[in-house]
Amino acid sequence: MPEITITLRHSEGLHARPAAIFVKKAQEFNSDIRISLDGWDVNAKSILEVLALGANKGSSITISCTGVDEEEAIKSLEDVIKNNFGDPIEEN
Questions:
Q1: Is the pTM value of this prediction over 0.90?
Q2: What was the pLDDT predicted at 91?
């Protein structure tokens, strides 16, 4: 089961539009995909669960995948976050 920990740089964290982009990408894969933050572990394919995490800018989330396309899934989701959900990175 591949797993990565990554820090959110988006000004909104994993809320609203960034969460929708993340969930939509996660739903493209057959693997079970989970996000963990501060002891909470949620289904990355559920917008309500992802929003309930309350992951803000600067939060370090852990993404884990289990399934037939787990390597591709984790790489793709990592790219979405590293590319700041398609938005420019605000330096503060």
A1: yes
A2: 65
